[in-house]
Amino acid sequence: MYWPALVVPNKKAKRTQALEEISLKKRIRGWMAFDWATQPFYTLGLTFIFGPYFAGVSFEYFSTIYADAETAKATSQATWFWGQTIAGLLIALTAPLIGAYADSTGRRMPWIWMFAMLYLPFTWALWYTDPSGGNIYFILLCFNLAFIAAEFMLIFVNAILPSLGSKKEVGKISGDGAAIGYWGGVLGLFIMLILFVNKGDGTTIAGLAPAFGLDPEKGEDFRAVGPFIAIWFAVFMIPFFAWVREPRTANRQGGVSQAMADLKKSLHGAWHRKSLLNFLIGSMFYRDALNALYAGGGVYARLVLGWEIMQILVFGIVGAITAAVATQIGGYFDKRLGPKPVIHVCCYILILVCLIIVGMNRESFFGLVAIADGSRAPDIVFYICGAAIGGAGGALYAASRSMMVRHTHPERPTEAFGLFALSGKATAFLAPFLIGLFSTITGNAQLGYIPVIVLFVIGLYLLRNVHPQGDHATWSKSDIPSP
């Protein structure tokens, strides 16, 4: 295991003692606590509760502007994805530099603390969503600022992963951490269903009135997801901050200018590392497509299939459970076969799901097979699609993180995962932009997902040139910034 040297001798002794006192097993558990603490933002906020609720609110708002319901649906979907587009651009433009700066100073935990403090108020702000849609743009801003904070925390947390085990072990650690996170999402969904969300008759599925006297008529049962996510995060990040430690390397002279120089050198090195370059670009496309499915699954169910929020929540539970199980299974195969085969299988599954999403609605399958009025077939098929998105998406995320470790130099982990974030966000605007564009041009929310299929295919094609075990053997000292 690589630990950079410390600068001040007396501080070195104290920090070394602290690291020894916290066992590796505890540090791994603390690191995994981050996935548990943040997953409800993606499961409850992005995909299954707030996203669909926002789609419903914005649809009602745009229905007062556009006479045609399909235009209002397409505009609602496009608005949601325009927000994701802008957030993706901001992350792509700043993540590598911040990662390089953190590596230059040797500190990551202060950045995690800072973004955690930004994350909390913006998630809480979702409570203030106006059910009439009067402040949808303000709420969209708050949601995406929380999203940006969560993604930046993830960069620094991922940078700690290489120090937790060998190249072979990190695949299972990554998979187990992601699986634990998905189980957190499942529990969060159950809690929302049992205690908060009105099933249509003023009570929850447990037959209880929404907790704390929340008024379903004002959407308070759904809006409570904001404070719920914030409180969950604050409580379950405690093990992370209590058990995860990092050694401090020497502060470099030059600050941002030095970080820029280091980043330039790393980018130059990445350009000449064929396996790394193809992985970064390939994963850029397939992760962008996956994030679009996460962001749009609940929105699609709401706008195309006409599902009520309660149906979407059950859909979310199915997807989250399969994600937790499949991600752990993916971690097992990652350890035995490496991450590349896992990535391939997951991408093929998700391409099939996208084809179904584009070709299915309540009237027919691909315009060829008519569906009887009132048939439950589209609902059953989409539940299966949700399970596939959750399972394949979770395993794909964990395997990609494991593959990045195989291309990461121990002296520059945060910068490496900053580049990983860049590859994930450099075109993060592309899928939302294309979905928004196709939805607007076609006036059809369903056809907006055609570009997602293309992105998965491009990602798979570029993976041909990625070495299954990374490119550690090809590292050149000239590619790595000097300590």
Mean pLDDT: 79
Strand content: under 5%
The span between the termini is 17 Å
CATH architecture: Up-down Bundle
Q: Low-confidence runs (pLDDT<50, min 5 residues)?
A: 1-9, 476-483
Count of individual beta strands: 2
Query: Percent range for helical residues?
Result: over 70%
Order of helices and strands: HHHHHHHHHHHHHHEEHHHH
Question: Which features would summarize this protein structure in a list?
Answer:
disordered C terminus, mainly alpha, Growth Hormone, Chain: A, 18 helices, 2 strands, two-stranded antiparallel ribbon, globular, 483 residues
Describe the structure.
This protein is mainly alpha-helical and 483 residues long. The chain has a single domain, classed as MFS general substrate transporter like domains (Growth Hormone, Chain: A, Up-down Bundle), CATH 1.20.1250.20. It is built from 18 helices and two strands. A two-stranded antiparallel sheet has the order 1-2. It is globular and about 60 Å long. The model is unreliable at 1-9 and 476-483 (pLDDT under 50).
List strands and helices in order, with pairings.
Blueprint: H1 9-21, H2 24-48, H3 50-63, H4 69-105, H5 109-124, H6 136-160, H7 167-196, H8 220-223, H9 225-236, H10 238-243, H11 256-271, H12 274-303, H13 309-337, H14 339-359, E1 364-365, E2 369-370, H15 377-405, H16 413-425, H17 430-442, H18 450-462
Antiparallel strand pairs: 1-2
